[in-house]
Each structure stands twice: as structure tokens, then as C-alpha cells.
């Protein structure tokens, strides 16, 4: 939870180095979760590469995943990538690199290429922008509400996660 906005980061704790197909599937699950929080998902697939500026394996993986997500969501999901973090959060920067980007405004669902990038980003944002307040990590794709509590879990996060689990259990 950031002042004035919600930012969602996909897979901070489970899949170490997902392939493009796995990233696409996780993204669709995460987008549905964003909707449950009352937000319209705006998805950015992040990379050290900005719209083809690198041909590294990681950059290609994120670019392929973006294409898969577009196909799997039948174009219903606002998604673009691969891109830098500043491109994801600033439309003017993104438009300069990719004038035809289908993503409008600021991304609110950040998809990382691996667990290292996601977990580092999650913890940096939590401490620098979120005043240490988070809801999550939320495990997706499971039959019952299950969530991750780490050794740095605060009482506030424990209360948030308990409330979320109760709400989720009544929805199923």
C-alpha cells in the first residue's frame, strides 16, 4: 500500500525462475486478484531491457510472456513489456520508448522475470514507499486461502492477511 495508490508485484516468494508460459499464467491469476481488490489491472512486464533494447534470454522471456498474455486474455488485459521500471510507472517515459504502447497511465501490476527481482523490489518498495505496510504475499492458484508470512511480518500485516483470508474463505 503506497500513498495514493496500490501497487501489486507478482511472484515475490514462490517460483524462482519461471518460463514465459508460467509468467503468462501467473500474470492472469494476479490480474484477477487485482480486480478483487477493486482495481483495473494495468500490467507491466519488467526487464533490464526496454522494448527490445537487449536480446538477452531474460528480456526475450518477458517479451514472449507479454505476447502470450495478450493472446490468453484475448486482448482484454491492458499489458505491455518488456520494459524498465520507470517506463512502467511513468507514461511519458514509456511513450518515448514505445509510442504504440497499449498500456495507459501507470502500471499497477508489476511482473518480474524471476523471484530475485520480485522479492528485492517488494522489500525496497515496502520500506521506502509503503512505510512498511503490505498486504501479502498472497498465494494464487490454490484451492483454499493460503498466504505467506515471513520473519519480518508485523502485527499490522498479520491482521491484514487474516482479514484477507477470512474474506477469501467466504467467497469460495
Automatic annotation (TrEMBL):
<dbReference type="GO" id="GO:0016746">
    <property type="term" value="F:acyltransferase activity"/>
</dbReference>
<dbReference type="InterPro" id="IPR050500">
    <property type="entry name" value="Phos_Acetyltrans/Butyryltrans"/>
</dbReference>
<keyword id="KW-0012">Acyltransferase</keyword>
<protein>
    <submittedName>
        <fullName>NADP-dependent malic enzyme</fullName>
        <ecNumber>1.1.1.40</ecNumber>
    </submittedName>
</protein>
<dbReference type="Pfam" id="PF01515">
    <property type="entry name" value="PTA_PTB"/>
</dbReference>
<dbReference type="InterPro" id="IPR042113">
    <property type="entry name" value="P_AcTrfase_dom1"/>
</dbReference>
<dbReference type="InterPro" id="IPR042112">
    <property type="entry name" value="P_AcTrfase_dom2"/>
</dbReference>
<keyword id="KW-0560">Oxidoreductase</keyword>
<feature type="domain" description="Phosphate acetyl/butaryl transferase">
    <location>
        <begin position="3"/>
        <end position="166"/>
    </location>
</feature>
<keyword id="KW-0808">Transferase</keyword>
<dbReference type="InterPro" id="IPR002505">
    <property type="entry name" value="PTA_PTB"/>
</dbReference>
<dbReference type="GO" id="GO:0004473">
    <property type="term" value="F:malate dehydrogenase (decarboxylating) (NADP+) activity"/>
</dbReference>
